[in-house]
Design a protein that fits this description.
alpha+beta; 5-stranded mixed beta sheet; two-stranded antiparallel ribbon; extended; binds adenosine-5'-diphosphate; histidine kinase
C-alpha cells in the first residue's frame, strides 16, 4: 500500500543517515589519530635539533680552551638561555596538545610525601634564596607515608605553582603546606606574599595564553601556559586546583588530590583549554 511504501522510504533514509554518521565518526577518529602521531613526531623533531644546539652552546659557553673573548662567551650563554626558554615553550605546547587529544598518560605509583617535599625544597631553595625569600615546606604529621599518584605530573604542577609563587613575590615568604583533609583528599597549598591577583584576573589566569596583566607579564616573562596545564593535569590526577588571592597581599593556590588515584574517577577527556 501507499503507507508501507512511505515507511520503506523513511527506513532507507534512516539507514543511509546512520551509515553517513558512522563514516564521519571513522573519518574523525582517523584525523585525530593523524594529529596525535603528528604531535608525537613533531615533539621529537623539534627537541632533537634544539637539544644538540643547547649542548654545543653550553660547550662554547664553558670556554674550556680559554680561547674565546668575554663577549663570545656572553653570546654563547645567551644562545643557551634562549634555547632553554624555547624548549620549555615547546614542551608546554606539546603537553597541552597531548592533554587536548586525550593522549596524556597518567602512571600512578606510590609517592612518598617526605621525598616529594625534600626534592621540591632542594629544587627551589636556590631560587628563593636569590630573591631573599624564605621557603618553607610544611608536612602535616597526620599524613600517611605514601599515597597513589603520578609523581612526575604531580611534580610538574607543584613546580609550576612554586616557581610562579617565587617569580611573583618580591619580599616575604613562599610556603608549601601538605595536609590531609576530612573528605579523604590531600591538599597541597602554595602560599606567597607576592603581588596577588585581582578578582577580575582570577577568572582568567587558568586559561591558556592568559597572563593576569600585560605590563606584569612583560616584566616577568613567561608563556601563560603553566596554570592552564596545571589545571588540566590536576583533573587528570583526579583532583582540582583553586585560587585565593588579594591584589597586593599574596596568593594561595591549592591543589586537592585523592589520597588514592582511581582511573575510574577521572573524566576521559578534559574540556579543551580556552
Ligand atoms: P606564566 O607564569 O608563564 O605567565 P602561568 O599560566 O603560570 O603563566 O600564570 C598565568 C598568570 O597568572 C601569570 O602571568 C601571572 O599574571 C598570574 N600568576 C600566576 N601565579 C601567580 C602568583 N603566585 N602571584 C601573582 N600572579 C600570579
Amino acid at each position: 500500500s501507499e503507507q508501507t511504501r512511505v515507511l520503506e522510504i523513511q527506513k532507507e533514509d534512516l539507514n543511509r543517515n546512520a551509515t553517513d554518521i558512522a563514516q564521519k565518526a571513522q573519518e574523525l577518529e582517523q584525523a585525530s589519530r593523524y594529529k596525535s602521531d603528528f604531535l608525537a613526531n613533531m615533539s621529537h623533531e623539534l627537541r632533537t635539533p634544539l637539544n644538540s644546539s643547547l649542548i654545543l652552546a653550553k660547550l662554547l659557553g664553558d670556554n674550556r680552551e680559554g680561547n674565546l673573548t668575554e663577549e663570545q662567551v656572553k653570546f654563547a650563554r645567551t644562545i643557551q638561555s634562549s634555547g632553554n626558554d624555547l624548549l620549555a615553550l615547546i614542551n608546554d605546547i606539546l603537553d597541552l596538545s597531548k592533554i587536548e587529544a586525550g593522549q596524556m598518560d597518567i602512571n600512578a605509583e606510590p609517592v612518598s610525601f617526605k621525598r616529594l617535599a625534600n626534592d621540591l625544597t632542594r629544587t627551589f631553595e636556590p631560587l628563593a634564596g636569590e630573591k631573599k625569600l624564605s621557603l618553607t615546606v610544611d608536612l602535616s604529621p597526620d599524613l600517611p607515608e605514601l599515597f597513589d599518584s603520578d609523581r612526575q605530573r604531580l611534580e610538574q604542577v607543584l613546580k609550576n605553582l612554586l616557581s610562579n609563587a617565587i617569580k611573583f613575590t618580591e619580599k616575604g615568604s613562599v610556603t608549601l603546606s601538605i595536609a590531609p583533609k576530612a573528605d579523604g583528599t590531600v591538599a597541597f597549598a602554595v602560599t606567597d606574599t607576592g603581588i596577588g591577583i585581582s578578582e577580575e584576573q582570577q577568572r582568567t589566569v587558568f586559561d591558556a595564553f592568559r597572563q593576569a596583566d600585560s605590563t606584569i607579564s612583560r616584566k616577568y616573562g613567561g608563556t601563560g601556559l603553566g596554570l592552564s596545564i596545571s589545571r588540566q593535569l590536576s583533573r587528570l590526577l583526579g583532583g582540582h586546583i583553586h585560587l585565593q588571592s588579594e591584589a597586593g597581599k599574596g596568593s594561595t593556590f591549592t591543589l586537592e588530590l585523592p589520597l588514592n588515584y582511581n582511573p575510574d574517577q577521572v573524566p576521559a577527556r578534559v574540556e579543551p583549554a580556552t
